[in-house]
């Protein structure tokens, strides 16, 4: 079914561009809002977004626009692909335009002062809107290059999930539905932290056993935290949990992994982030997650270890020593008394 009204994508970065193209390829008119008029003009003329997605042709049905009010007025379904640091400030001034709209967050981050996820911010701003999230193992470049990909749309609003599936599902992109918005969104935000650690491990030449240990213990840690926060642990076995964790921790295409890799090569955090020149949400998530885990008393040794290296002046060797010598734990938290009966 082709939408009668254009679909909005907010954000001129790599993921916004990749999703805008998918929607256009499925026959929909797309308004891609971005703040920078020069970028919009360049895309309009050259049909490419060279800063964020070089070499990918932008579909003719994607119209780059800079008038946010007009975009929100004209569109009923709106995908939000803004950095987490910008989402509230961009949308709050237009709250009255959002009532009744379908707002789907693609952003994988946590707000610093409030510890809110992006869809919770959307709810704050627009309590009358219909809200969902899209999350999964979705490296923007691979999506744009039509690598076979799957994702999850999550919302309590089943009709919204169905609509998102209808507009995005395509030859190379499968959209699964979930009712666990909180779990799906939390998975997407948390995995970024572990991708930094994974990138670092690779730069330091650590072996395959180490990488596997990191990913698996990361999943244990994420799930432990999520359960403490009220999420369903089973969600973490899906695409938006372990799926996204695997891709982000194993791909040099991930920006969070790239930051970790640069740190492992000896760059400072500032230099690593500057060299990247794109959003790496894991850096901010690490700060807020470390504080929250401490506040609620959840054991997250990988998060604490990375935080100690980046913000508390510990060396990597000190942290590795601490992690490896910590008291042995049980493998899987949720099996009663470690499965020994
Ligand atoms: N790139 C990817 O592979 C994926 C990214 N995401 C998530 O999507 C979100 C956006 O990431 P990307 O598109 O990758 O970012 P990006 O780094 O490619 O681009 C960021 C975009 O946000 C714009 N921006 C920054 N501050 C802004 C502000 N105050 N107002 C308006 N626009 C502003 C920039 O101009 C740029 O167009 C992030 O939360 C990320 O975790 C989710 C899945 C995949
Ligand atoms: O979320 C992503 C893949 O699913 C993209 O990860 P990065 O933000 O680390 O590039």
TrEMBL record:
Sn-glycerol 3-phosphate binds at residues 108, 136, 191, 244, 254-256. GO terms for biological process: carbohydrate metabolic process; glycerol-3-phosphate biosynthetic process; glycerol-3-phosphate catabolic process; glycerophospholipid biosynthetic process. The keyword Phosphoprotein does not apply. GO terms for molecular function: glycerol-3-phosphate dehydrogenase (NAD+) activity; glycerol-3-phosphate dehydrogenase (NADP+) activity; NAD binding. SUPFAM superfamilies: 6-phosphogluconate dehydrogenase C-terminal domain-like (SSF48179), NAD(P)-binding Rossmann-fold domains (SSF51735). Its EC number is 1.1.1.94. NADPH binds at residues 14-15, 35, 52, 108, 140, 255, 279, 281. Pfam families: NAD_Gly3P_dh_C (PF07479), NAD_Gly3P_dh_N (PF01210). It is found in: Cytoplasm. Transmembrane segments: none annotated. Residues 7-160 form the Glycerol-3-phosphate dehydrogenase NAD-dependent N-terminal domain. It comes from the Bacteria. Keywords: Cytoplasm, Lipid biosynthesis, Lipid metabolism, NAD, NADP, Nucleotide-binding, Oxidoreductase, Phospholipid biosynthesis, Phospholipid metabolism. Residues 180-321 form the Glycerol-3-phosphate dehydrogenase NAD-dependent C-terminal domain. The active site is at 191 (proton acceptor). Its main location: cytoplasm. Substrate binds at residues 108, 255-256. Pathway: Membrane lipid metabolism; glycerophospholipid metabolism. One of its GO terms (cellular component) is cytosol. The keyword Lipid biosynthesis applies. InterPro entries: 6-PGluconate_DH-like_C_sf (IPR008927), 6PGD_dom2 (IPR013328), G3P_DH_NAD-dep (IPR006168), G3P_DH_NAD-dep_C (IPR006109), G3P_DH_NAD-dep_N (IPR011128), NAD(P)-bd_dom_sf (IPR036291). Belongs to the NAD-dependent glycerol-3-phosphate dehydrogenase family. This is Glycerol-3-phosphate dehydrogenase [NAD(P)+]. It comes from Pseudomonas fluorescens.
């Amino acid at each position: 079914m082709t939408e009668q009204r254009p679909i909005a994508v907010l954000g001129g970065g790599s993921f916004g561009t990749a999703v805008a193209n998918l929607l256009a390829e499925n026959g929909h008119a797309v308004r891609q809002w971005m703040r920078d008029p020069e970028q919009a003009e360049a895309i309009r003329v050259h049909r490419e977004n060279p800063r964020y997605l070089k070499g990918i042709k932008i579909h003719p049905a994607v119209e780059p626009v800079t008038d946010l009010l007009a975009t929100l007025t004209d569109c009923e379904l709106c995908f939000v692909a803004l950095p987490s640091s910008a989402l509230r400030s961009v949308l709050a001034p237009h709250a009255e335009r959002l009532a009744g709209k379908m707002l789907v967050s693609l952003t994988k981050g946590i707000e610093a002062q409030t510890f809110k996820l992006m869809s919770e911010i959307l709810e704050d701003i627009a309590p009358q809107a219909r809200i969902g999230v899209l999350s999964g193992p979705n490296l923007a470049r691979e999506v744009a290059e039509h690598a076979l990909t799957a994702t999850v749309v999550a919302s309590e609003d089943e009709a919204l999930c169905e609509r998102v599936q209808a507009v995005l599902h395509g030859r190379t992109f499968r959209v699964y539905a979930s009712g666990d918005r909180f779990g799906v969104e939390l998975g997407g935000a948390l995995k970024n932290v572990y991708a930094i650690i994974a990138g670092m491990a690779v730069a330091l030449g650590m072996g395959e056993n180490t990488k596997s240990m990191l990913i698996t213990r990361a999943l244990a840690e994420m799930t432990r935290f999520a359960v403490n926060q009220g999420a369903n642990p089973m969600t973490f076995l899906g695409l938006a949990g372990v799926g996204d964790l695997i891709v982000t921790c194993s791909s040099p295409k991930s920006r969070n992994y790239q930051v970790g890799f640069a740190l492992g090569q000896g760059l400072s955090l500032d230099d690593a982030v500057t060299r990247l020149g794109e959003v790496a949400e894991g850096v901010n998530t690490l700060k807020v997650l470390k504080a929250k885990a401490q506040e609620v008393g959840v054991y997250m040794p990988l998060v604490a270890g990375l935080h100690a290296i980046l913000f508390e002046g510990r060396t990597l060797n000190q942290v590795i020593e601490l992690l490896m010598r910590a008291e042995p734990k049980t493998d899987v938290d949720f099996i009663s008394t470690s499965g020994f009966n």
